[in-house]
Specification:
By secondary structure, the protein is of the alpha/beta class. The protein is built from 20 helices and 13 strands. The strands form four sheets. The protein has a four-stranded antiparallel β-sheet with strand order 1-2-4-3. A four-stranded parallel β-sheet has the order 6-5-10-11, sandwiched between helices. Helix 16 packs parallel to helix 19, helix 16 packs antiparallel against helix 20 and helix 17 runs parallel beside helix 20.
Length: 565
């Protein structure tokens, strides 16, 4: 449920009852328990407009707040704050509804929209490396989140499969006379070998250049070789996606080649709008306030990334009908997207009501604060990083004698992959972050392993509980009160994370929830001898709702839970 919205409706009702014809500001979560559960500071904002003392306005509102429903107590504080306490009976009833609901009583959008999420974007000439990790993880999480909230999400994987290097690559693939399954296992080496041959053999270089022209003109033989190269390359990507548990498929690929036939039309339509200008032989769009123009066609007639991106934006807005288009791409591309978005709107390629956003993210760094590299300074292949995560997770598993070898392997995969993903998602996406195995595989702190342990600990309670859950939830003390309200805040957190495209809001919430539950579990015994039946059943239901919330939150992040740890 949308807890904040429900409280706001109670405040709005008080405004209406008090005959104050204003739309109130939203309530906010109280920063300390003594300030209540929520605070309303709208009285101060309205004091000048209504020509009244803010405490006078606050008093008038308090007289008209319904204290028989969601709010049980309201008090004036300071210059005109209103501290609000929620009704324990109402809180308990909402938790009872959530714990038996498959969606935890979380609604879907009243007005869902179609959203395109562009993420991952590997280059077909190279294997996926750590530079693709953040885009892939953040993008998949955003897509999961928006889908859960009810939007229609279209995943798009914009791969680089078109350009001059492909003539060289497919010519080399033909020359070695293989089907590619052997040589293309290591794309980095394949590219180096092809480039070395290109530089050393003039006749091969001429052939490679001819193949570029043939590919672009639709030559059947060259396109067959090109397609074989793309298929094998995508197979490498799919292996990574499978290990990561992300939902990108072959059907989600929208490569540069997909838009190739539209590039000429993009230039023609830009020209019709009158925004094109020639500069040193190139076709450009000059934007107000930008010294550097957007070049859309080179003097030799070739097209650029901006041209393809404009074609993609028009396709996504006009053909797919997207109302929100999100590009999960490195922060260093910020200037490019700002310009391309502006051109797309000015040219009418994208309607004004379509939201265009660059979901920027920072760089993964090593312990020394430098970009993450291999020991010899090379690029870290993503598949190798994920395999290492599984091996390190095996070392982190305690009490190995409790598991079979097969169980340890499966557990290590869930823990290792989850650790890599959670460490990335737990920080502000625009920040750089230090990749640290010890930190991400720790049972302490805001880590995936801590969350998985909290979930497993709750499951251990239910393995010891022999019976059927029944009875009502009882909010008996301040700790139960805080835990129940935090559980009810889940939908508000998801909504805010979706609006801001900030997965770290979800991880912060889950960590706070798990930490609070640990305190609750220590101070409020559940199965201990002497606990009365009503309290036991109530606390079991709160534990169950906590576990289900953790599981759902991690599922949105693309991370699995474990029942025993």
């Amino acid at each position: 449920m949308k807890l904040k919205q429900t409280i706001n409706q109670s405040i709005q009702a008080a405004f209406d009852k008090a005959n104050i014809d204003e739309t109130p500001m939203s309530v906010s979560e109280a920063t300390k328990p003594e300030f209540g559960d929520y605070q309303f500071n709208g009285a101060m904002a309205l004091s000048k407009k209504l020509e009244k003392n803010p405490r006078e306005i606050a008093a008038q509102l308090i007289e008209n707040i319904d204290l028989s429903g969601i709010i049980s107590k309201a008090e004036i504080a300071g210059p005109g704050f209103i501290n609000l306490w929620l009704n324990p009976l109402w809180i308990a009833s909402q938790c009872e509804t959530a714990v038996v609901d498959t969606r935890l009583n979380i609604g879907t959008r009243e007005k869902p929209v179609k959203v395109v999420v562009d993420y991952s974007g590997p280059n077909m000439a190279k294997q996926m490396h750590v530079g693709h990790l953040r885009s892939t993880i953040i993008g998949d999480t955003l897509a999961n989140l928006l889908e859960f909230l009810g939007d229609e999400v279209i995943r798009q994987n914009h791969i680089g499969d078109w350009g001059t290097q492909f003539g060289m690559l497919i010519a080399y693939l033909e020359e070695i006379g293989e089907d590619g399954s052997g040589s293309l296992k290591d794309l980095e080496q394949f590219y180096k070998d092809a480039k070395g041959h290109f530089d050393a053999d003039a006749s091969f270089a001429d052939k490679a250049r001819e193949y570029v022209v043939k590919i672009q003109s639709g030559d059947t033989h060259c396109l067959q070789l090109w397609q074989k190269f793309i298929d094998i390359s995508l197979g490498h990507c799919e292996e990574v996606y499978d290990k990561l548990g992300v939902k990108l498929t072959r059907e989600d690929v929208r490569a540069e080649s997909f838009y190739n036939d539209e590039l000429e039309n993009v230039i023609k339509d830009l020209d019709k709008t009158g925004v094109l200008q020639e500069s040193d032989g190139a076709q450009c769009v000059f934007l107000e306030g930008d010294e550097v123009p957007v070049i859309v066609q080179k003097g030799d007639g070739g097209y650029l990334y901006a041209t393809t991106d404009l074609a993609a934006l028009r396709y996504r807005a006009q053909v797919l009908g997207a109302k929100r288009i999100s590009y999960v791409v490195d922060a260093r591309q910020g200037g490019h997207f700002k310009q391309v978005f502006k051109v797309a709107k000015e040219a009418g390629f994208v309607p004004e009501d379509v939201k265009l956003e660059h979901i920027a993210f920072g760089t993964m760094m090593d312990k020394s604060g430098k970009p993450f590299k291999t020991r010899d300074g090379g690029t870290v292949k993503l598949i190798d990083l994920l395999d290492e995560a599984v091996l390190k997770a095996k070392d982190a598993i305690k009490d190995k004698e409790d598991y079979t070898e097969a169980e340890i392997h499966d557990l290590a995969k869930v823990i290792g992959i989850g650790a890599v993903k959670y460490a990335d998602l737990a920080i502000n996406r625009e920040s750089n972050y230090i990749f640290n195995w010890d930190k991400m595989l720790s049972f302490d702190g805001n880590t995936s392993l801590y969350m998985q342990y909290a979930y497993a600990r709750i499951q251990s309670i239910f393995r010891r509980f022999d019976g059927e859950l029944k009875g009502n939830i009882i909010i008996g003390d301040a700790l139960e009160h805080r835990l129940a309200i935090m559980l009810l805040r889940f939908e508000d957190i998801l909504d805010r994370a979706a609006t801001d495209a900030s997965p770290n809001q979800i991880t912060s919430y889950l960590y706070d929830l798990a930490t609070l539950f640990m305190r609750f579990y220590e101070q409020n015994p559940i199965l201990k001898e002497g606990v009365d039946e009503a309290s036991k059943m109530s606390r079991l239901q709160l534990a169950d709702l906590t576990a289900k919330t953790i599981k759902q939150g991690l599922a949105i992040l693309g991370i699995q839970v474990v029942n025993k740890l």
